[in-house]
Predict the structure.
Amino acid sequence: MTALSLALVIPWAAGIVLALLDGRRRLVGWVAVAVLAANLVALVALATSVLPDGTVTVTTGNWPEGVGITLRADALGVLFALLSSLALLAATVHEVLDGVRERTFPGLVVLLAAGLTGVFLTGDLFNFYVFFELAMTAGYVLATYGGGRRELGAALVFTAVNLLGTFIFLLSVAGVYHVTGTLDMAAIAARMDDVDPNTAVLLAVGFFVAFAVKLGLFPFHFWLPTVYTGARPAVAAILSGGLANIGAYGLLRFGGELLPDELDLAAGALVVVGSASIVYGGVLAVSRRSASEMLAYSAIGQVGYVLVAIGVGGPVGFAAAILYTIVNALNKTLLFLTAQLRGAIVGAAFAVGALSVAGVPPAAGFVGKLELFRAAADNAALIALLVLGSALSFVYAFQTYQYDFWRSGRRGKRGTVAQQGVIAALALLVLAAGVWPEPLLSLSHDAAESLARGRP
Amino acid sequence: MSLVFALAASVLFGTGAYLLLDRDLVRVVFGVVLISQAAVLTLVASGLTRGSAPIYPLPEGAVSDPLSQAMALTAIVIGLAVTALLLVLVLRVVHAYRSPELAELARREAERDARLERVDEREHAEEEAAAL
């Protein structure tokens, strides 16, 4: 219980202080790293109590239950919070080692961590929106980091499109409050059965559009390549490894727990949209020469797998979606951080990330793909699609590897030893998760079960 | 009453969406503002109840729903903050590109892509020549 409050309060309070300090000073950067590490430790402490004993709930401000805002940590939320916090920590250490260029950077990352932790650990619908907007606003400003023309143009597109997404989310929140009369997610899940199906489908579409924009799924992806290639590597890693998790989490939480009937209804459509994403992202990534452009299109393709798994549904499908989101976030954090460096260690780390994206053992991506195949086992067309997608990702990942590292086509700097250490540690983590997948598998199954248990 | 709110919100959203698609960046900001107002209006409309003000100690009889007002207030504050942010962003983009038009941004981007393409092509040709 204290761990839950601490995980939120630490980055929140520290973020406000850090935002006032000059982030270009090395000390401030390291304080931000320490705060993120403390957040991670609090989340681990929370996970150790949530995973064996079940959901931890706190009602803020000692209000009676049903009046105050509830914070709720279940297996799914804790897992996503841990993942995002880890990605943020790695990217921040990388950037601080490189030298922070703008005074606001450390404060913004810490506030982003506060927003993300809040989104994943809240049990209140409107509170979800507030934390969502907090994280997104920090993301908008981070997208301008570097201050060049391209960053600014990309940040403007990112902000305008995602604001539209969050306001559509808010419209759906208002709708849910109107039809159920409550904002508590558990109560909404219970009352949603009595709601007129037509209304519920409309609300579900609103939520789907909001999270699909965030994830960058195929018809909503248009902002994504500009932003991910325009932003600096550390920011791209933060956006794709941390912030994009909101999309997958939202689809799982709102689709799997709050609106399960509507999810079943739309299962076919989700699989089709996901497949379109996989093929579109894969084909365009093959046609790209530069690593960051390849990664941006690859991100569109990879989230397609998550959507297909959610569309398949059931405990197996949800577990596959959760596992694949974790693996994908780790891959993208690792690969984006290597994007502008060169050298032997960076090359090896990139190869590990590429193996993981393509789903080749011993990297973690293999386990993710395996779970996907398990989820889609009784559908020949889906299996064929997954094989096609994997083949495409193999081609684009190693085409870039060949171009960048074998022929030394990469113009970049070597990076300090410490930076290479961060990248190597991430690569080892991806390898370790692939060699010893047991903890990750059981965690994602726990999380999927916590979703199924939320069903009335 | 609900119908009036629904109509007003849909008109706001539609106008906002139209402006959002405009080439002029300032109009894009106005579009976002209008859409945020549509969301706020829907929040207000989602809890329309008649009654006295919900201030402790609660008066006899029905009180109006305080929650949708609290949500609307929060949404207004957040909307204000992101509008300010968006305006600053537009200002910086206008300074950087010396043009408030999206078309200009797109043109510069296309120019840059074409330049990169040419570099790639030249490198490719050189590699081919070296391989022969």
